Amino acid sequence: MPSTIGILHEFGEGENWTEFTERLDQYFLANDINDTTKKRAVLLTVCGGKTYGLMKNLLSPEKPTDKSYEDLVKLIKEHQQPEPSVIVSRYKFHTCTREADMPITDYVAVLRKLADKCDFGITLNDMLRDRLVIGVNDDRIQRRLLSETKLDYKRAVEIARSMQLASKNLQDINASQKSNLLGVHKFQGTNTKVGAKPKHSTNKSKQSQASKQNAGASRTCYRCLGTNHRASGCPFLDAECHFCHKRGHIKKACRKRAADKNHSTKQETNVLNDDFDSGYSAETYTLFYGSSKRVPPILVKVEMEDKPVTMEIDTGAGMSIISQSTVGKLWGDKGPAIVPTQIQLRTYTGEEVKVLGQIRVKVRHGDTTKHLPLLVVANDGPTLFGRVWLEEIPLQWKEVHAVNNLQGLKSVRSQYAEVFQEGLGTYKGPKVKLYVESDAKPKFYKARPVPFMYREKIECELER
Predict the structure, then answer these.
(1) Please, are residues 267 and 288 in contact by the beta-carbon 8 Å criterion?
(2) SUPFAM superfamilies attached here (predicted)?
């Protein structure tokens, strides 16, 4: 028996019938099968039991063997793949937009597939070019394509692919040259001065954030606060901020705007670098004391490796941090192994906090148990609960902010016993008479909030 070229697999559920019959025609061509009866026999053999049953049902009372090969192919195609509406197909084509991380080649393939049913005719390449320019979803590529006076489809694809590839290569180069810099909200360094003005480093490269952050750390674009792309590929790379009028970010993500807001509150808070530059790519968090009165920290109790630990919640710290002395108190020489890390920590004023390494600990809070990274530093200070852990461990904020200082409440009640007596109070000052309109209606207004700068003086006056 002569050997055949190629292998025919049985038609399976979910396969495309048109593609299957196209491969079948090539099989006939390669093996010189021209007889229509033989073609029909091969088709009925490899079409599968379910498809054969469908043919019988559609042809009843006739049998599949009574029809030609071409009739059987057309019968299943019309049943499984009815001709779509050209209007609907064109709507899908004209609303197809590339996703942020989608390769240009994949987007072009999707457009060609959608255009197959649009019946564009001789205008196909023009339609593909227009849709590529409009739906590329990348400002840099779009501006480059629109700058071409004579742009055809082939040239548009070439430009878009080369620019996307160049951007990816640049990210790979930068990633190999940059080190991770994660900000610290507050940690006691040996040279840290509370309230000191920030010392901006002259070496911009030391302030740049690495493309690849430590495992588990969240990636947020500092230009627009988006999370689905890196800052180097942000659509607002050349946008002008409506607050500080500098290029490279938008108003929502403006660090100068955030700093101005926080300065106005005169409270201990996160303040970002005021001298923000469009070339600045590091997510550096810093510390600013606007008042001598310290706000009590927000604490949360967790278990690390089955040891109870009280941590200070710090949304300004990228990573969770523990001091070397605290590690010794908790576990002694039997604690988790400290492994080296490239992460560097700096305070707002630029002092470097010495990082000894990183450990992975089992953390339990409530019903949640996770194995999470924890940086070990040489400086003494509170154990910080950073943003990485906040994403992994849901906190019960009602319990965190619960008021439980009953002793303080009792002392206030005893000091001002007359105020808390039952019944109406008695005014002991001079006689007062109020004149109101006869048709006046009483209205309720909440107390006007006191500005922070006057709050301490007013409290002193009330206590006088």
Answers:
(1) no
(2) Acid proteases (SSF50630), Retrovirus zinc finger-like domains (SSF57756)
